[in-house]
Amino acid sequence: MAAGNTGCHTGKGKQCIRERICKRKEEIKMDRNFIITNEAVAKFNAYVAENKDSGKALTKLFEEFAKTQGVDISAEEAFEQLKNLPVHEIAPEMLEQVAGGNDPSCCWYGCVTSDTLFTLADGTEKRVDELQDDDRLMIWDFDRGCLSEAGITFFHRVKEEAPVLRVSFSDGTAVGVVMEHAFFDLTDRRFVAIHSAGQALELLGHRFAKLSGGKLTEVTLTGIVEDGTTDSYYSPVTEAHFNCFANGLLNISGFMAGLYNVFDLEKNELKYDAAKKATEIKAVGEIPYEVFASVASRELYERNNAGWFSVSIAKGLTTVPELVRLFAFCRPFFVSGKSCAAA
User: Domain limits at 119?
Assistant: First the structure.
């Protein structure tokens, strides 16, 4: 299943990987202009449950299903739509095919270099290459708008050569980024993924959130430059919140693309608009655990509040196959054996 992806590898094939991702996203764009009724959703999911081994029949149903929503598509187009269908449970074997297994060359990356210091729950710092799976990290709780703590849900560690971007800030802080990593931009009030030295022109002078003296403060971005290579890189992701502090900077792994900047913040606070968030989740409905059953345990689904991922899908930030691929790829890096789906 992954054999066709062996032409590109992490690190040395950075540009190749990025081109593959961009090309893939262009290839599988879906038409989101039709409204899916609850009755149609129920009918579709019931059919999927009864016909998990019938790809042709499933495609045919989706073709008919789309027509009921005012979209006239062919069987081939239906299959392309099916691969990106939001919210619904799709036949696991089809998801596995779309997900592409856990081959790293078809997945997102977002890591930092080994010398990066991560803030623990007690306020002390530890090098990322010395972090233990049971360490608890300081995080920013966007639901409550305050500092808090969380365990690590998965931890990606790679021993391989890769190019580094050095991201610098006004107080002398610098972070080595591999492939792509997101930091919280106070100017734009969202996480911004940094992946290219060329972004310096648009981000110079932007204010970024930094932890200092136990409080959230701000620093200004002063530069993004290519800075040689590293022989290892790391990316811890905290459960439910996903974010943490790297060299004091509020950050989130590029792995989580599509799962941050999903909900609106209150006007003058770094806190979700609770009423609007609840309304959006209620309107879309939570994505069921069964979608991820083949690649993740129910415990992992619940620990990360994965039900609301449906909102991200509905907003076009990610797709079901992309999420399944994320879970499938990250499975070897889950920090608790209890959190892994049975092999």
Answer: 111-256
**What is the CA 197 to chain-centroid distance, rounded?**
22
Domains: count for the chain:
1
Distance CA 11, CA 34 (A): 40
Taking the C-alpha atoms of residue 338 and residue 294, their distance in angstroms, rounded to an integer, is 15
Taking Cα atoms as reference points, which of 130, 133, 96 lies closest to residue 2? 96
Q: In this structure, is the dihedral angle defined by the CA atoms of residues 63, 306, 196 and 179, taken in order, positive or negative? A: negative
| Number of Cβ within a 10 Å radius of residue 145 | 15
Within a domain: 299 = no
Q: Which of 49, 56, 57 is nearest to 90 (CA)?
A: 49
- HSE-CB at 285 with a 13 A cutoff on CA atoms is 12
Residue 122 lies in a domain: yes
Residue 312 sits at φ, ψ, to 5 deg, of -60, -40
Please write the tens of the pLDDT for every residue from 152-174. Answer: 988 888 888 889 999 999 999 99
Domain presence at residue 20:
no
DSSP state of 143: T
Alpha-carbon radius of gyration of the chain:
20
Q: Rounded CA gap, 251 and 240, in Å?
A: 14
Give pTM, 2 decimals.
Answer: 0.70
Is residue 70 a part of any domain in this protein? no
